[in-house]
Amino acid sequence: MSESDKYPAESGRRRFVKGVVGGAALAGVGATGAAAINSATQASGAGGGATQAYAIENTDGPAPRGMPQIPVAIDDEGYLKGVWPEVKTEKQGGISIQIAETENFKGSGVTYTSEWFQYCGVESYAGLEPDYDSENYFRVGSNPGYEWQSETYSEGDRLHVDDFSNYQTWTGGMGEAVGKGATGRWRSEDAEDIIPIQVIKSDRVMELAQQDPWIEASTQDGFIAWLNKCTHFCCVPQFKNEGSAKFGAENDVYCQCHQSVYDPYSLVQTLFVARPRPE
């Protein structure tokens, strides 16, 4: 993984640092205060404000919350996609704007919105525009996180279910066989800024899907995905990351910048201040 993939652009880092303290403070705020927080924190631009999202849980380190989940779909040919919310128009402050939001996503009772991903500078990425022209496939990036991806794919190839067939025995060279990981990008074709993602296939995901309506709706055949930007200072973590064993995180998602750790098999609701998309 190159230095540019590991560490965020300085401008994106500065944009995000401003919201770190506020985001951490929101961690214990109940939903009843969301409307008040919205009006107090919303900046100029489209959307933003207090947002409740499903995320893989942050279990250690300085990150203030988990990384937001991307619902997964598999097409008829076996290629993996990230589901994008329904695009619609609504008025905010008397102005008509486009938003991406799906209420009661697949009968889960959860409202899924692109605001889940509006942090760390990603809110300004072309791929976060509601009507960005994309087929929403998960594609291999220029520096894949795992050797097996470099051996199997070329940059821009779509991730395919068949390439995860050994998920029950794969370890990535460390820890236990708890699932097979892949890195990639999403909604980033022909865009200047890349939206990094991580995918895992695991029996644990299938087990969780039997117990929770949201997990059942947002995963498929044991595949789970999330936006792979650490909520601390915007670095790009990795499942079974090099160096993670030193911190007891060889079976988790580990951020090399400041040792934040995430559990990909613990999905929790988080409340944070989403940044508005630039007008």
Automatic annotation (TrEMBL):
GO terms for molecular function: 2 iron, 2 sulfur cluster binding; metal ion binding. Keywords: 2Fe-2S, Disulfide bond, Iron, Iron-sulfur, Metal-binding. Residues 186-279 form the Rieske domain. It comes from the Archaea. InterPro entries: Rieske_2Fe-2S (IPR017941), Rieske_2Fe-2S_sf (IPR036922), Rieske_Fe-S_prot (IPR014349), TAT_signal (IPR006311). This is Ubiquinol-cytochrome c reductase iron-sulfur subunit. It comes from Halobellus ruber. The lineage of its organism: Archaea, Methanobacteriati, Methanobacteriota, Stenosarchaea group, Halobacteria.
